[in-house]
Design brief:
The chain has 3 helices and no strands. The chain is mainly α.
Length: about 80
């Protein structure tokens, strides 16, 4: 495990202290979890960008053309 020194504004430190206390976890655990969540979001965004680059309008139109032209159920109508 690694240790880092982190400087926070007093207001942010107070907020994270309160939130961690409410969750009954340490500030370290709170910050580590928040960092993991942010990293997950960024990695997912990159993954989706890569997937989108592989797509094409022609393939989308091909898939959409297979959908039957019927009226939606009453609960799906806009």
């Amino acid at each position: 495990m690694s240790t880092i020194s982190l400087r926070l504004p007093d207001s942010l430190h107070e907020s994270v202290r309160k939130l961690a206390k409410e969750d009954k976890i340490s500030i370290n655990q709170f910050v580590a979890t928040a960092l993991a969540e942010k990293m997950s979001a960024l990695i997912t965004e990159e993954y989706l960008k890569e997937r989108a680059e592989k797509g094409s309008k022609k393939k989308l139109q091909n898939v959409l053309s297979k959908i039957k032209d019927i009226e939606p159920e009453h609960y799906d109508r806009m």
